Amino acid sequence: MTMTPTSATGTTVADIGERALVDRITRRLPQPAWVVVGPGDDAAVIEPERGTLDVLTTDALVEGVHFDRRFVPPEAIGHRALAVNLSDLAAMGARPRAALLSLALPAAFEVADLDRLLDGLLALAASERVAVVGGNITRSPGPLMVDLTATGSVKRRRVLTRAGARAGDDVYVTGTLGDAAVGLLSLAREPSGPALAPRGAMSAAEARYLRPEPRVRAGVLLGQQKVASACIDLSDGLADGVRRIAEASGVGITIRADDLPFGPDVRTWFASEPARMLDTTLRGGDDYELLFTCSPRARGRLRGVTALLGGLPITRIGTVTKGRDTRVRTPADDLPMPEGFAHFG
Amino acid sequence: MTMTPTSATGTTVADIGERALVDRITRRLPQPAWVVVGPGDDAAVIEPERGTLDVLTTDALVEGVHFDRRFVPPEAIGHRALAVNLSDLAAMGARPRAALLSLALPAAFEVADLDRLLDGLLALAASERVAVVGGNITRSPGPLMVDLTATGSVKRRRVLTRAGARAGDDVYVTGTLGDAAVGLLSLAREPSGPALAPRGAMSAAEARYLRPEPRVRAGVLLGQQKVASACIDLSDGLADGVRRIAEASGVGITIRADDLPFGPDVRTWFASEPARMLDTTLRGGDDYELLFTCSPRARGRLRGVTALLGGLPITRIGTVTKGRDTRVRTPADDLPMPEGFAHFG
Hints:
homodimer, four-stranded mixed β-sheet, 345 residues, 24% strand, alpha+beta, seven-stranded mixed β-sheet, 11 helices
């Protein structure tokens, strides 16, 4: 990225003004051929492929609610703003296509930090081939807010929703769980836990919190290959995801605690506290893995998808049941599913 | 609208929690047949008509920047959040289709006010046949923010941009100008001006500020009938709109001050100050009229559109010129176009 003289540390957004800010962002946005009108006009115009559906999602990151600028660098804020939206598209089986970026910036927000925020966002956009086709920029008299809307496309019969789980289906999750929650505890240094990485290095858990990797390819394949009967992304924790699939599908779900794929840093952090490890993993948000259900008849197709995904583990963690109960089975006990993270109250 | 017991005055969003808030909003959103997956899943899925383009826009309203809750009621905030986005679509010639609503709410924001905000937004959505197909809700540690993304559709050869103006085209504007700026002055009571309406009644100018009417039908017709060579909506004032069309089209524009369609309240407010009237009308934002250029060959088609629009006046206010100068001609003088409203600095 080329730095212009105005991006020197200390320059605020108020110093350079709105038009310069918009130009600064706009000129960094590559526009593929299916973008008919890109940034700079009243709205963006895209032409999706024929026969496919447009999928739309929006998610806001608010300073003091979703991130703490004391330990979350601007690149991570930008990465995360796009990642959480791509994760929503992945949970629908949609291939991401375009994004709109809406920024509310405190007047004292530094231009250098804006550049770094864009670095993080655009690196992920490039690697997932998402075009930022427009957006909006305004002043915030309070916190920094980054609101991103993403669109994607999916064939009509390949859409994944939360509503298709049936009794007898198995429950699976991609990747590992609990890493982001432990990463946040470690970054916030409260309570002080064990060292997860050598001094000055970033632990795997911290990296997971700062740069969640949306499971775009997994979501697309789970839909394309008709593997998943229901799917959700774990933005608000496993307990929340389990409850929501159960509610939307009108089923119960039992999760087996011993089968959960805890991340390695999670086991280190909670070495002497298995109960807290389970609770944090169930309730902690920000994992951005996919939780999905799969009928026993689709197991062969699931093996095919697992092979295509290579390094990403997919773990069977439970069963869809009749009734409406969501439960966690441990070797000692059979517990009701805890509540997930609440944004209010 | 049915009020539930929890909407009693004094209940805050923190009191009822996120899930109840989402349900409260979601159950009020009608979903037309082309919505494949509506609110409540990870993302919305819509199926646009074949052969048409999807147009996307997003715009945020921030308390303390775009509105003052002391004199802007919640209904007006909701109306405006959608109106400003529909105005952007209109400026592209696009018919609005779907919207995503992203809310950042202070914990003490009252649920009754949230209901009223939705009243204003959904009344406009119903009258313009826009479906709210999804969104996001989060807590704000600072001001209320309402970020809305709207999508619309337009045929490929009917898209209006800012870039098509040619020397010799005429410049037109819909409706009247300056009303919203005077309405804001009157509502904010600074400086104290003349009474525009009987005590206790709302003046036309105040109504224009609080409930701008997006020129959706005009925009669609100007594109469909191939009338406008360039088009923009006047969100940031006439001077800003003129400059942006000139820049994007690589032309100059001269506006004739005597031909501007000042609103009646504007003439009353500035009765003894014609210079301030002109300056406020050029620089004042929030009119949300359409500014467009039209080649002399398209004048017949413009008359047809004017007839179809019935009561909405369309006024010729200037000319597109060679060079890059933007100017205002008064009987006494020929002035450079002033700067528009700046969001930063």
